[in-house]
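Long-time lurker. I teach an intro course on protein structure, and each term I like to show students one example going from raw sequence to a predicted 3D structure in token notation. This year I'd like something fresh instead of my usual example. Would anyone be willing to generate the tokens for the chain below so I can use it in lecture? Attribution to the forum is fine with me.
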Amino acid sequence: MNDTYFGKLGCGTWGLGGDVGGKYSGYGPISRKEAKDILLSAYDAGIIHFDTAPPYGNGSVEVLLGELFSDTEDVKIITKVGVDTWEDEPNFTAKYVRGSLEKSLTRLKRDYVDHYIFHSIKNQSESDLDEGVNEMLKLKGEGLIRSFGASVKSPADILPMLKRFPVFSTIEFNFSAMDTRYLDSSIQAVIGSKDDLFKIARTPLNFGFLGSELSADTIFSPSDHRSRFDRATLERWFVRRKALENLLVKHEVTDDIARVAIAFVVSFKAVDLVIPGMNKLEDIRENCIAVSETNIHSSLIQDIIQLSKDW
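-- Reply from a regular --
Happy to contribute to a lecture. Here you go:
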């Protein structure tokens, strides 16, 4: 087992919130028992980082994590602030930032969280964000959070966010074999200069489109957020997946594309944690194999990067 890479594997929990009503609440229905079994199995497999947020199941995922791991010292929790449900308008005022953390800590049955990050940043006023950051500094001083930062909408937002808030010590961003914008040299120059920055890569399977289960004919549940993607976007992603599959054939790689996609992301020093969604027990096994047993040659990595640039 590659212990260095295995330590980079976390568990994304959005899909474990199930269908809570409203538009695009997650990845479709899932029972509470299934969600609980997945979390326990992930921990039993050696995964200790769990990425969550209040709108995941409208708080139910945080409740589950609290029931299962409140007394488990090695478990690391990443949670977010900004909205309680997907219908809410983002709020980053000091009162909301503190109040949201208090509710999360109650659900999680914890005295602190390891990472507390802004979520769903859209067009907030500068004063709200400044107010929220100042409150996060207070919360850290009180020992209620260990690290704080932001989950950015696009990798292009990393530079302005870190320039504006150099106190950030956590950043979460999209990064996959289909989306390598994070590797932009200007981003990497800043990332490389911040030794204390914890870097979390989300969507390593590009919302499941780098997995083997989806096809151009897949029909998503109305509560699955992927149902909002237009047909042109879906077709473009399937074309890109096919191009990546052809690249694996060229390199005589026989591993499943999903395993290669995870191995690709964790291979970079500029990634401290990758958080694929784990919505089935089989996902845990596959992701563990991807980080511990899947070998990916440097020449394939470079070809994937070049292919992404060509898109």
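Some talking points for your students: The radius of gyration is 19 Å. The first helix runs from residue 3 to 6.
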